[in-house]
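To start, an entry.
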Amino acid sequence: MDMPLAFKAMNTDFLIDGLPEVAANLLQELVRQAESAFSRFAPDSEISRINQSTGEWTSVSPLTYDLLRDAVNAFQATEGLFNPFMGREVAALGYDRSFETLPAAPHLAFGKHETAVRSILPGTVAATEFSLKQPPLEMDSHKQQVRLSQFAAIDVGGIAKGWTAQRAADGLMAKGIRNGLVDAGGDVVVWGREPAQGVWGIGVADPLESGEDIAEFWIEGLTAIATSSVVKRRWQNPGQAPAHHILDPRTGVSAASDLLQATVMARDLSIAEQYAKCLLVLGSADGVPWLEERRPDLAFVVVRVDGTIVHSDNLKVYAQEWKVSPRVKQA
């Protein structure tokens, strides 16, 4: 059996396991191509080129065109709650360069009835200037060109890692690779059987930093698990309030719901990423029924600001076995 392959890309840690060496290397090369095309910080990336050419038709590679097509589809499917066109808003909040160079925000202390996430995020940026039901990107499939509205900037950080991992997995499955795992910074897609034990074991970390996992899943077959959190990617520029990278498209600033973390299980990692972020934006009271009505096929585990854990009743659809922390309440 080949050894796992770990590497850094797209500002996160990737892990590839269960694959032949040749397949693992091909997957790593796809990730490198995506990194160079999708970054909003690299001035020569395709995303930067589009952002610098608002109002003009711009030719893009097949890889970038496919990503943007799926980003538009996600925008429409969620009526703008998943919004990869808020690059200007997130830059205005201070996230205008690679995250590791941003000034860290103070550590959040969470008590039993803590509402710190809401209180530290005042509305300092105007809401987006385009409709939440109309994506600000036109696409021409015949010419493989896109045209971005002058009011928008593309930021695919919320979809690129999972989308790339899923695209790579799909390609390998199409080539007859029967088993594999791709972990893109904690967002994971697996398929087939784990070569040694037969099932893949996936843990979900506690956002309250207890050192324990809040959930563990034992999985066989195609399954994707994505986790989004407002705890880790936080920063604070001088003279500004602390902020995080999950923006609420309805306000244009960091989301301020009652959720610290959302994990979604799906058959596609990009889908799981999209709906995990929507849950964080909406919060438990609105987000759970919204997801159950719109996508009842998806499963979820969410953590509230008071540490309470809520999960859906369909985890068995995705996991042969599972364990969820006792701080739990079933939706």
Remarks:
- The chain has a mean pLDDT of 86.
- The radius of gyration is 19 Å.
- Helices lie at 21-38, 46-51, 62-77, 87-92, 116-119, 160-174, 269-294.
- The longest strand covers residues 259-266.
